[in-house]
Amino acid sequence: MPSVTRTARETVEELIRAAVSAAPGDMADCYAPQVVIEMPFAPPGPFPPRVEATREELRARFAAGTAVRRYRGLANVAVHETADPEVVVAEYEIQGEMTATGEPFSVSFAMVVTVRGGHIVHSRDYTDPIAGARITGRLPELIAALS
Predict the structure, then answer these.
(1) Dihedral pair phi/psi, residue 25, rounded to 5°
(2) How far apart are alpha carbons 35 and 47 in whole angstroms?
């Protein structure tokens, strides 16, 4: 029996669920072996606005993130299909806590995602760079970079 490939919507819904799972590194399984991730609003810092990465590089990055923060819940999830069956737009709010302090946080995201063969090959990720810098303790760095 042939395997069934996930639709673009199903792939992105799985990505969002994996973010708050016990093993957030599993988000990497939703990505193709080679992927391009663009973050047009990324502030100056450790991640450039365009990344070409492998699935395993993403897996390591996602797993490393748990040392700093832990995602606990989702809200306002909406996945919009487009006229192109390979492209979906996802909106969601992710809630979590900082690992070191237990301080809660909430960040909203919007993603434009291209999926081929059941795996993400490209995404454009939009979020509030000020909220991200505040959560990660990089607000002073962001202010200095903008001065």
Answers:
(1) -60, -20
(2) 15
CA distance 86 to 7: 8
Contact 145, 45 (CB under 8 A): yes
- How many Cα atoms are found within 13 Å in the side-chain-facing hemisphere of 34? 1
**Cα 123 from Cα 114, distance rounded (Å):** 6
Q: Is the dihedral of CA 54, 57, 62, 63 positive or negative?
A: positive
Burial of 147 (0-12, 13-18, 19+ CB in 10 A): exposed
Average pLDDT over residues 121-145: 85
Read off the pLDDT of residues 25-77 as tens digits, 9 standing for 90 and up: 889 999 999 999 999 988 776 678 899 999 999 999 888 888 888 899 999 99
